[in-house]
Automatic annotation (TrEMBL):
It holds the Pfam family DOMON. Residues 40-97 form the DOMON domain. It comes from the Eukaryota. Residues 1-23 form the signal peptide. The lineage of its organism: Eukaryota, Metazoa, Chordata, Craniata, Vertebrata. This is MOXD2 protein. InterPro entries: DBH-like (IPR000945), DOH_DOMON (IPR045266), DOMON_domain (IPR005018). The keyword Cell inner membrane does not apply. Keywords: Signal. One of its GO terms (molecular function) is dopamine beta-monooxygenase activity. GO terms for biological process: dopamine catabolic process; norepinephrine biosynthetic process; octopamine biosynthetic process. It comes from Ibidorhyncha struthersii. GO terms for cellular component: extracellular space; secretory granule membrane. PANTHER family: DBH-LIKE MONOOXYGENASE PROTEIN 2-RELATED, DOPAMINE BETA HYDROXYLASE RELATED.
Amino acid sequence: MVFLFSRIKGLLFLLLLSCFCFGQPAPPLLRFSIFLDPSNMVCLHWDHDEQEMMLFELQVHTTGWVAFGFSPHGELPGSDIVIGGVFPNGSVYFSVS
């Protein structure tokens, strides 16, 4: 389970990095999606391949930062979280815990 979450964190980092660095969302290559909030400001896209490798893309209308987490039990304790954003000077930051 830990190995899977490590791979997911790496994928999230790569997906989010491409969105922040180019200033546009990645092309819609993922087959599944759902809005995570009632105002349709947070959209999660995902897919999997034949080896059951999961890919995720999170598109968020934000004023500077976003956080996203995975948990085996749906709770904050023990979850894997990635936080990313853009500083006022335009530089990008990421933190994975």
